[in-house]
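Researcher: Let's try something more involved. This one mixes different molecule types, so please make sure each is placed in the same coordinate frame as the others.
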Amino acid sequence: MNSSFSSPLYAKRRRRNVITMALSYAATGFGLSWLVVILGVLLWEGFSGLSLAVFTEMTPPPGSAGGLLNPIAGSLVMTVIAVLVGTPLGMLAGTYMAEYGRYDKLTTVVRFINDILLSAPSIVIGLFIYEIMVAQMGHFSGWAGAVSLAVIVVPVVVRTTEDMLILVPDTLREAAASIGLPRSLMIRRVAYRAARAGMVTGVLLAVARISGETAPLLFTALNNQFWSLNLNAPVSSLPVVIFQFALSPYKDWQKLAWTGALIITLAVLALSIVARILAAQRKTS
Amino acid sequence: MLSTGRRPVVDVALRGAGISAVDHVDRAKVLQRLRLGDAVFRHLTRAAALVVLVILGGIIVSLVWGSLPALRTFGVSFLYEEVWNPVTEKFGAIAPIYGTVVTSFIAMLIAVPVGLFIALFLTELCPMWLRRPIGIAIELLAGIPSIIYGIWGLFVFAPFLQQYVQPFLIAVFGEIPVLSILFAGPPYGIGIFTAGLILAIMVLPFITSISRDVFEAVPPVLKEAAYGLGCTTWEVARYVVLPYTRVGVIGGVMLGLGRALGETMAVTFVIGNAHRISGSLLAPGTTISATIANEFTEAVGDLYTSALIALGLILFVITFIVLAIARLMLLRLNARVGG
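Model: All components are placed in one shared frame. Result:
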């Protein structure tokens, strides 16, 4: 067995390794370059249209100046309602799965279904809310938009709540039980407190997720050209306005669409960075 | 009894809850209250868990209910008819189904190998200090909302493809028998091909991050043993890491596929919304989600609306199956790694 380094087999293996490793570097460069290209274009196009008027004026008719005040406000209101509805629901469900029924059948089924809802197409959720709210009420409304966003929030919060509660050491629970604390109080005063940072991270991720969602709003909240926070009527939202303005033939509308896109992206990135910092703190403390 | 002169420990734990075991004379009453609170909270959480199931059930029931008129009118032919004519109220779903499948296929064709190679880079080649930044960058790419990909695709990527890439493809493949059909026709910029590429960029981070996670789950001792035998990095990846994580990688790929199938906004901007099946990938087409997004608010007539909801039902069934397989695969891997 002469394992000489110059044998043809060895050379072939080494060549193959060099090629695949080069491919691996190239793939990483390829993947990261999209981030640079997309963010670069977005910053360039978005910042050139950014001004105070964007935050103080209403969406304009084609051909005149204006801002994005009504869609920004509409998005904020619907996001807040969606979080207020979806978070408690998701946290309670996650609590059941991690604390009460960690090993029972219901939890296994709910976990499976929840994971599927987590990546289900959001446009289908829009159709669902259209059927149960818009079609029944007879008109598009901000409430329908907020509820469809809440349906997207729930699985994200369920998932993180369950994951974070499972990480809480059982010794904490046993200590609480040993001093006679009822189970529900143990969960609320001990387990929640220990898992707080992680649960907040989940909510932030959920907000990041819904702040860019367009598909479920298209035929629930629809759109509104005017200042209106009446949730019984169509409400404007940033993603839907971007969609409408970007596909329009008017240059100034397209400009506003880019600016709106920049605002959403910065908001989403800021949220995920804060979530990341919170998660890191949990790990070190 | 618990109270022995000093305040019982439970009083300290309950401080601020408005309940005290000592201050109330009637212990039984306090315990009763706690027991009730316990039961209420338990049932509340259980009900919330059931709501998750109700949401899924509600989606299925409402979609089936909404699509009944269309399914009753067209029957099974809805699945294979190509006609989509709101004026004569004739609808068939095959063109959007075709578009959905083909764009997702293009996306997976590109994103799977690239994603696996990036995951390989991150777990085997990348210096430690660089792993976290690159991992974060990949996750940022996953966090960008799809409408951003859409607007970028429409204004930047599609014109670029139209000007440089597509004429090149047409020129190169124009002479080769089968490929000349796939890359025929004028370069529109928007179309099935562009939508597939955008989807590839969108799905890439999902596949990368899941593959990286499952690659990291390989016990180091297996890899070290292979390196000890003199294997190259590629051989370790190909013959140790990949076989060990196969189930997880397939799960991750299916998860990415589920995303690609259901993705709406990024595709809607660049697909062209044409209800026909064209042999050429460069031609405009449509997908299920893009059809719904484009036409739902303008749909007049119950049959039209119902046909669009039926499309949604088809999409939901397809993605449900794909995602269910993905989850089962990942569960299987977890069971093996855990046990």
